[in-house]
Amino acid sequence: MASRGIDAVIFDLDNTLTDFMGAKERSIRAAAEAMVDAGLPMTVEEANTQVFAVYKDRGIEHQRVFNLFLEQAMGRVEDRILAAAVVAYRRARDGSLVTYPHARLVLNRLLKDGYKLAVVSDAPRFEAWLRLVYLGLQHTFDLVLTFDDTGIRKPDPEPFRIALERLEVEPGRAVVIGDWKERDIVGGRAAGLHTVYARYGDQYSRYADKRTDDDTEPDFVVDDLLQLLDVLERLGGSPESRKTRKD
Q: Residue range 111-128: average pLDDT?
């Protein structure tokens, strides 16, 4: 343990630990079908596309997406159609939210090996905790830090700095893993952490404007969360193995 190069791992939550966008897509599709069945005068495909347009404009965590969609589509919110959407969405969401393959194995291994674990997420606090509790991960992390806790969104490095301070870990002895280069990687690098790009979970590009520049390049790229263990082994080995590496 004394020679280990890394003491803490900071995770993004959505699309890094859990397939958030997959669950979101299935839930919105179910809501679109329910609204059409309840009398919405458009096709399921049209409704699905327009709901996601609202998300792109207001943010993927917007809580009144169906209200705004119905106001735009019908000029009013009809409670019967809104209720159909909400019920269908919740039923589909509860059956769709899952962790990525190997997530529990990796987390259990890290806990066993004595790493400090944290989540730094831009999600609202309650929504983040709902997801963690639903997945049975509420006792896994030493720290869960959300937008409501900091008032600052990534890629600002401050949420990562706050996490490091509370974990009592130096930046060079911590790793951040996330699916969004422009937020997780840029913010983590600015805070001095080793950065791991979870390429397997990068699904936001369809629903958010994303910039590309040289600063978004991560230290490591993984296509399966299990590969994080290999990254930690590299960072904990000899000085030569701790050099920045892009897969």
A: 95
Chain-centre distance of CA 162, in angstroms? 18
Say if residue 124 is preceded by a cis peptide, omega within 30 of 0: no
Torsion-angle region of 124 (φ positive above 0: left; ψ -120 to 50: alpha; else: beta):
beta
Long-range contacts of range 87-94, CB-CB < 8 Å, 24 or more positions apart? 87/34, 88/27, 88/30, 88/31, 88/33, 88/34, 88/35, 89/27, 89/28, 89/30, 89/31, 90/27, 91/30, 92/23, 92/26, 92/27, 92/29, 92/30, 92/31, 93/23, 93/24, 93/26, 93/27, 94/134
Could you report the per-residue pLDDT of 40-95, keeping only the tens digit for each?
Answer: 999 999 999 999 999 888 877 788 999 999 999 999 999 999 999 999 999 998 88
How far is it, in rounded angstroms, from Cα 152 to Cα 1? Answer: 34
Strand partners, 10: 118, 176
Query: pTM above the 0.90 mark?
Result: no
pLDDT above 70 as % of the chain: 89
The 8-11 sheet, strands edge to edge: 143-145, 116-120, 8-11, 174-178, 194-198, 220-222
* Domains of the chain: residue spans and CATH: 8-19+99-242 (3.40.50.1000), 21-96 (1.10.150.520)
Q: How many residues does the chain have?
A: 247
Using DSSP's 3-state secondary structure scheme, residue 5 falls into coil
Q: How confident is the model at residue 159 (pLDDT cuts 50, 70, 90)?
A: very high
